[in-house]
Design goal:
The chain is mainly alpha-helical. The protein is 86% helix and 0% strand. The protein is built from five helices and no strands. The longest helix is centred in the middle third of the chain and has 95 residues.
Length: 183
């Protein structure tokens, strides 16, 4: 078995022979990088060759190409997913616009409803006040005619007083129901 020193001397001899062939030598070209690999082998107790390095680089290239192809397939899948998501986003934007339109329409109708409800409450309040005035008038007639309870005017005044009181109760109940819907 040769020593590291013998290996170094042999490498130096080979290097000189190759250098003597000149810069444009085919052999010198074939040996490019080989001397450095030989020095590393001697220094590190390795057994590497340029042929092994080329084979390893080829293998790494194939693996890199396979990984690149996988990455391209993933990119295509992600691009398809992005297109689907963009389409769905557009659909949702349209639906959101439609919902906003419906909400605006609902708010307009609700405002109209509230306005109409307030108008009805005002009308019913006015109607309740009229009923109270009429009841006061009928009550006054009942008192005035109380000495003649058999008189038809007395009976009509009592009847109209009761009917007006019932109407007022209904009106006040409707007002109460309408006000309760505000809660």
């Amino acid at each position: 078995m040769t020593t590291k020193e013998q290996e170094r001397k042999a490498l130096e001899k080979i290097r000189k022979i190759v250098e003597e062939l000149g810069e444009n030598s085919y052999v010198a070209t074939a040996f490019e990088g080989c001397f450095e690999v030989a020095e590393e082998n001697i220094d590190n107790d390795w057994a590497c060759s340029m042929k092994q390095r080329v084979a390893s680089a080829d293998s790494e290239t194939i693996t890199a190409q396979q990984n690149f192809a996988k990455a391209n397939r993933k990119i295509e899948m992600l691009q398809d997913t992005i297109k689907c998501l963009q389409k769905r986003n557009s659909e949702l934007e349209v639906q959101n616009g439609q919902l906003n339109g419906l909400c605006n329409e609902y708010e307009d109708r609700l405002a109209d409803y509230e306005e109409a409800k307030q108008e009805v409450i005002r009308y019913l309040g006015h109607r309740s006040s009229e009923c109270e005035k009429k009841m006061a008038g009928w009550a006054e007639q009942v008192v005035d005619l109380s000495e003649c309870p058999a008189d038809i005017a007395y009976k009509d005044a009592v009847k109209w007083y009761k009917e007006t009181r019932e109407e007022r109760k209904k009106v006040q109940h409707m007002i109460h129901l309408l006000l309760a819907t505000n809660k």
